[in-house]
Amino acid sequence: MTLQQIINRGLELGLEAVEVYANTSESNSIKLDEGKLDSYNMKKLFGVSIRGLLNGKMAYVYTETLEDSAIESLLKQLVQNVKLISSDENEFMFDAGATYKQVPNLVSNYKNYSTNEKITMLQDLEKKILAVSPKIVKLGYCQYTETSQNIQILNSKGLDLNRSYSFTTTVVGPLVSDGDQTAVGRAGDVNPFFDKIETDRLVKESTDAALAQLGAGFVKTGKYPVVFDRDVATEILGAFASVFSGDSAMKKMTILADKVGQKVFGNNITIMDDPFYEDALIKPIFDDEGVPCKTKAVVENGLLNCLLHSLKTANYFKTNPTGNGFKPTTDGAVSATGTNLFIKEGNLTKDEIIESVQEGIYITQVNGLHAGLNPVSGDFNVQSSGFMIKNGKIDKPVTLFVTSGNFFDMMNNIELIGNDIEKRFIGVASPTLKVKSLAISGK
Amino acid sequence: MSVKHKEVFGITEEIAKQILETALSTGGDFAEVFMENTKNETIEMQFGKISKINISNVSGAALRIIKDNTEVNCSLTKFDKDELLEVAKTLADSFVGTKRIEVQPFVEKDVKLVVHPERVRGENLDQEIGLITEATKGAKEYSKEIVQIVASVVKKDQYMFVFASDSTWQTDHRCNNRLTTRAVASDGKSIQPSSSSFGRNQGMEMYDGFDAYAFGQDVAKDAVEMLHADVMQGGEMPVVIHNAFGGVILHEACVHGLEATSVARGMSVFCGKIGTKVASDIVNAVDVGTNENAWGSINIDDEGTPTKCNLLIENGILKSYLVDKRNSKKMNHPITASSRRESYKLQTTSRMTNTYFLPGTSTFDEIIKNTKFGLFAKQMGGGSVNPATGEFNFAVNVAYMIENGKITKPVKGATLVGSGKDVLLRIDMIADNLEFGYGMCGSMSGWVPTIVGQPTIRVSSMTVGGRGGNN
Q1: How far is CA B125 from each of CA B44, B65, B128, B134, rounded to the nearest angstrom?
Q2: Which of B75, B388, B394 sits opposite A368 (nearest CB)?
Q3: A301 to chain B nearest CA, in Å?
Q4: Which of B72, B386, B393 sits opposite A184 (nearest CB)?
Q5: What is the DSSP string of A339-403?
């Protein structure tokens, strides 16, 4: 069946509206091990999510084959399932005819380069990293991936939209050791252009922090001023991003559910969701329901302006959809999530922020965010490593301590904000942040 | 076996041979095709109303060729004969050379079935809906402070087929089936979630006699108790880790570091440690793929090797890694039937199945009685590890303080961190009460169901994180 035939058949079976969402993707990935090709992985994938509306309720099915009998059976199950949905919230499908912002579509140039050129790029990168110091034992990983994806959304209300993106990702992770302790560095570059991959930056970023981590000691348990490196601050914001979701609010799984229009964070905090942000890699013009994406301050000078909404959650809260109805995976249901969600930059460099600290901790790595962090209560307890700060200078490395706090308290106690948001970020970003005080558990 | 290859996947021995011969035409040592046809179902209830019914059919193939130390592979959604032959040719073309190895005649091994799902789905969803309704009712009726309940039944019904140039020709049918309930308690000021799961690799018959109401009540009890608990005050102290999901300590602190993915690349603290002491003398640990219909069990792994019981640690001495076909050659270590993948979309590699400490000789009461001061970690959450450094962390969802040999006040927000090479050596008491927990383990080849398990154990000293107190 074609996508249009699926829609027609769904309507014949009694659905009020039908939408198909087709994802066609290709990717190639190259991994090196000790200078040699370890693996070359190709993917050619296709999947279609079909959703159907009946009496304001929605059910989903997903298939990777368009064979008639498979589609027929899935559509029949969809009709059966949608009748079982009993939630109070009503669902909708978007009409055709909205105006979308024009954004130039970035097409990667990776197809102009041969596989051998890509292997050579990784080999050169590995050589440069190993040459930095004899303490670099090997590269735990050294990998290049190129991805292209096309999304098509078609529904029975005339919606017919298409978007594509393509880019390359290069990641390296050197293992460093002084014979006693080991540490693993990491750095990555997401880049649409193969010839512009920032290999020099990868060499520096992946080795500097890992080498400096060697000889790390323990922290004395206590309360300390904390500087979060921008990557760590980004990871923490990403892990708590669901607190701004209309879905979490509807499920009462965020403290912010009934706080729109109220002061929730410190005056210095502005959090934007900007699909068209210049430094973001992907700039969606419509969400996965076809609603136009738009720029908004979710939090402006500490005040919660709005939550992120899909068609369903906007209707539930009697407000307008914000173009944030996205599918976490092709086979999943739409939920409200950010496009490019970031903490607005301040005007200090990372070094200036560190200089402001008499005694504190600079955290460069956190682990276990999925387990040690609770987006419902805002509490977090995460394994961390980094450096002591003494008299405004980075002092000895420290590891295996737990940083504990509460996201909502913390966002009311950010003292300084950096000016260093990552270029070409995907989805979430934060500059370096200095927090007044957090509990640190060590020895 | 109940699965018929031709019916499900349309591949005859003749076509299979042709594909593998094409794949090995440029000198490859090994070629393999994995195929699957999987139906995922999610039925979810939110505070008593059915909020989600999703069905997804995943079907595709993965082909790989290994030559010396290089693997080339392709995952593709379509799996008709012509497409597979074309991919076999493309992949073979990445190597330069002539044929070195013949495709062996296929031999289907007779496997003793340890996983045999029966009633995977009924005429309708009545049983699934009945379960989540009961669990919701149990949680709701426990306390007025319960403000949200999300209960779901998630099933992954997978037919897989693997054939390879080394004579492999196997199929398997699996049905990972799990009931999960998540409750949120609130007193108007703060909110506290909790959750629990019950899972098996089995059809709906696994719920016969299962008390979903009591299961819901237990989840609600944890949320309410933790809502009113004091915040943990961090520091270093003895920690008693309770049975069942407590076994996540073995999973994170040690066994991820025994997987060939880390060991073969020299990226584990347990490299070169076979035959040496890695844990205290009372520690014995296994990874068992053959427990009857257990959540992490499989009849064969995703390379077609029949699963078995792997003794990992015996009386504190490291005995085995977890090794797949490719890494077996590289590491000169026997295959342990550990190769798993979430789907054809990800490359298969060494993973865990059901992994646990064997019972010791102490009793639970003795352990508590012998602990003057410390943390009783009753229910663990998830965690993570960096196998290269051995540094791990995990969250404690439900915990109490131990004072003068007695369990006292509940505490929330505790996290345990440590180093895998130290923590197993510090286990000084093991109880006789082995139980299991039902997790999803995420790693290079995606999410796979694994059992973590253990009897109650005591670690003489660990770093416990928490933000309470005035320290």
Answers
A1: 11, 42, 5, 14
A2: B394
A3: 24
A4: B386
A5: SSEEEPP-SB-HHHHHHT-SEEEEEEEEE-TTTSB-TTT-EEEEEEEEEEEETTEEEEEEEEEEE
Q: The tokens of A289 are what?
A: 């329901």
Q: Which residue is associated with the tokens 């193939």?
A: B61
Residue A233 has which token pair?
């601050």
Task: Please state, in angstroms and rounded to a whole number, the distance separating the CA atoms of residues B431 and B82.
Answer: 58
Interface test with B, best of A61, A404, A437 (most B CBs within 10 A): A404
Residues from chain A contacting residue B464 (CB–CB below 8 Å): 402, 441
Write down how long chain B is: 471
A376: nearest CB among B40, B52, B193: B193
Nearest of A241, A95, A291, A51 to residue B56 by alpha carbon:
A51
Q: How far is CA A417 from CA A300, A347, A411, B443, in A?
A: 15, 7, 11, 34
Tokens of B430: 């093991």
Q: Distance (Å, rounded) from C-alpha B436 to C-alpha B451?
A: 6
Chain A contact for B127, CB < 8 A?
no
Query: In whole angstroms, what is the distance from residue A15 CA to residue A17 CA?
Result: 6
Q: Which of A70, A93, A80 is nearest to A16 (CA)?
A: A93
pLDDT tens-digit map of B389-428: 889 998 899 999 999 999 999 999 899 999 888 999 999 9
How far apart (Å, rounded) are the C-alpha atoms in residues A302 and A263?
6
Q: Three-state SS for A107?
A: coil
Query: Domain span at residue B294?
Result: 233-467
3-state secondary structure of B24: coil
User: B231 near B412, Cβ under 8 Å?
Assistant: yes
What are B382's two structure tokens?
């998830």
The domain total for chain B is 1
Find the CB nearest B234 among A183, A221, A400: A221
- With beta carbons less than 8 A apart as the criterion, state whether B427 and B186 touch: no
Strands B317-318 and B339-340: unpaired
Question: Which residues 199-218 on chain B approach chain A with CB closer than 8 angstroms?
Answer: none
Burial environment of residue B137 by CB neighbours within 10 A (0 to 12, 13 to 18, 19 or more) = middle
Domain-embedded: residue B216: no
ipTM for the whole predicted complex goes beyond 0.90: yes
**Which residue in this structure is represented by tokens 């276990």?**
A368
Residue B329 within a domain? yes
Residue A343's Cβ-count burial label (10 Å; 0-12, 13-18, 19+) is buried
**Strand A359-367 to A222-228 pairing:** parallel
- Residues B84-112 have pLDDT tens digits of 999 999 999 999 999 999 999 999 999 99
Query: Hey, are the CB atoms on B54 and A379 less than 8 Å from each other?
Result: no
Within A222-318, strands assigned E span 222-228, 271-273, 296-300, 303-304
Comparing alpha-carbon positions, the chain B residue that sits nearest to A372 is B395
- What's at B234, amino acid-wise? G
* Percent of chain A whose predicted confidence (pLDDT) is above 70: 100
Interface test with A, best of B77, B126, B157, B190 (most A CBs within 10 A): B77
Query: Tokens 């990403």 correspond to what residue?
Result: A238
Kindly tell me the burial class for residue A27, based on how many C-beta atoms sit within 10 Å of its own C-beta (0-12, 13-18, 19 or more). Answer: middle
Q: What is the pTM of this model?
A: 0.93
Kindly indicate the confidence band of residue A200, based on its pLDDT and cuts at 50, 70 and 90: very high
- Are A183 and B389 an interchain contact pair (Cβ–Cβ within 8 Å)? yes
Phi, psi of A84 (to 5 degrees): -85, -15
